[in-house]
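Q: A reviewer asked whether we had any structural model of the full assembly, not just the individual parts. We don't, so I'm hoping you can provide one. Inputs are below.
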Amino acid sequence: MAATGPSSTETLERVRAGLAARYRRERRFRLFGAASAILGLLFVLMLFVSIFSNGYSAFWQTQVKLDIYFDPEVIDPGATGEPQVIGKANFDKVVRGALYDLFPDVSGRQERRDLKRLVSAGAGFELREQVLADPALVGQTRTLWLPADDEVDMLVKGYIDRDLPEASRRLKDRQIAWIDALAEKGLVERQFNAAFFTTGDSREPELAGIGGAIKGSFFMLVVTLILSFPLGVAAAVYLEEFAPKNRWVDLIEVNINNLAAVPSIVFGLLGLAVFINFFGLPRSAPVVGGLVLTLMTLPTVIIASRAAIKSVPPSVREAALGVGASAMQTVFHHVIPLAMPGMLTGAIIGMARALGESAPLLMIGMIAFIVEVPETPLDPATALPVQIYLWADSPERAFVERTSAAIIVLLAFLLVMNGLAIWMRKKFERRW
Amino acid sequence: MDTAEQAYDMTNIEKAETVPPRPDPGPEPAVVQFAPEAEPAEQEVAEERAEYDTIGDVTAKDAVMTVRDCNVFYGDNHALQHVNLDVGRNEVVALIGPSGCGKSTFIRCLNRMNDTIETARVTGEIRLHGDDINSRETDVVLLRARVGMVFQKPNPFPKSVYDNVAYGPKLHGLASNRTELDEIVERSLLRAGLWDEVKDRLDDPGTGLSGGQQQRLCIARTIAVDPEVILMDEPCSALDPIATAKIEDLIDELAQNYAIAIVTHSMQQAARVSQRTAYFHLGKLIEVDSTDKVFTNPGHRLTEDYVTGRFG
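A: Here is a predicted structure for the entire assembly that you could use as a starting point for your response.
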């Protein structure tokens, strides 16, 4: 630009003088922004690193290879073949026998007890299940991998310091020696812990799994989805498309927004008072959890659905009305299909929130210690976040890794759900 | 308020808070004071009437729709005032006037699209072949099948070309089987002059067509239900001159079968396509006459000012 006169040169000079400061401010602002983003990411990274480093080992479980002789004398002395007799048999003795055979020179009550403790208390149950399933096993010898005790598991995974004095660790010197001897023979091995995903809670960490919690959470989410999605969408459609604009509707709107901000524990108390005390629904049941979480997610679903309906351009409604569609046909043929991706996204995000929720479940008794994996939504169950809370409270070292492992599983579910929401938004997003 | 006016039955109004009311006319400019006998502001209805007398002949030879003393209120805003106008068979009526003069409001009365605006209130008598469309007996769905509408912005459904055209006939059960439906779709697209361009991509989304094609698709969608009247609300305002020319040719052809009312901002367009022209100003219908007369020898000073480009 050529300066045409003295005045314009002067303006240019002034602008130029301020430019450097302007750009500096801009750079500084950008730097702050980048710094806060990096800090946020760093915290997330820290969370993930700490949880994964603590939890990944729980997906493997130390197993001990034993030659089990299903001694008819112990299991079924009368050779009856009756399940009742086999069920009551002392399978611990069978396991013990296999261990004594491996270490024949171990004698004395205390020593033998220590030896027995290398294998999980659940090993006997496992054998019983096998024999009940196949009674022909009695009298035969089988080579089986059985879960090791949680302390052994911790030692093999390297969480127990061998240099500590014997009195201050949970495993005795001789137990460590036996484990090393077994390991040398290749009889101790870390195997993938499939049981972790299928079993319920247990006092023994090596037997405890998140199967019951996952199923409880699943039942709860099913109930929540079935109730909150249709109700939420119907409410949103009514409020957006049919409700007259008056003070009552305004009041409803304000209350829906308020409901979304109510602390979740309040919904738990409400569920306790209404669903359990008044309607007499079973305690600790996923169906009650689902009802409570429905109350909690409903406002989220309604608000997301209304936003999705609002984003459908009025021209589509006009077009439909213009060719003679009724108000309801307009909504069902055009508005809802176009708003569906947004509504589903809202529902999935609501579900993800419900999955991570623990406070309201404490109020309705889903915090109980429940070993059985629930079969129906009416059976007592616990949920993933509550299971995490329960395990985080347990003193055993082995529960620490299980807590983190359960958190990993929960985070994986949440990531999948949120990823699904993002994918759906990207896939079905329309621009007008 | 005029005793002849019948308060519009509010219970019939369907809800949909979609379209904002058209812009207010704003404060009256000085040019409005054309009727020296009228006194400003509050006065008796009888005296007021004189101001709303329309110059020219509001009736049509073979009237399909007759509008008598139509008023529209958006809340307290009297957006359309005492309008009388006929729409005749096989003719194109152009509605012209400056923005906010009420021409779109008027056209939306004819198929009760104003129902969708919550604050809108329509009074007066609008008859389609003698049936009062605002009466309780009139089914608004049926009315809109008889009085189709093409909007300012092309608004095809985000569905395939085929489904766009087939939607109306399906809705009203006009086709008993797929073959009939195919025929209706083909005939409608042919009449809208779009068939040759889209016959190979009937399954492509209608929103993927060009602007002019989209608008012709909307016209095809409208005529697919075989209406008696077609209302067009500035159908070419979003199109380029070539697409506009195509639509105008199409309007000419359609006029042989339908009664058409078209709102337009282009006086050239009004002159080209219409047989009669109605000039609106600030919610009043100032003048109606044959298009030739309105453009060459207007009866009112406001009309003259507008068509000669002195304002507007």
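A: Points you may want to mention in the reply: DSSP finds eleven helices and eleven strands in chain B. Residues 1-49 of chain B have pLDDT under 50 and may be disordered.
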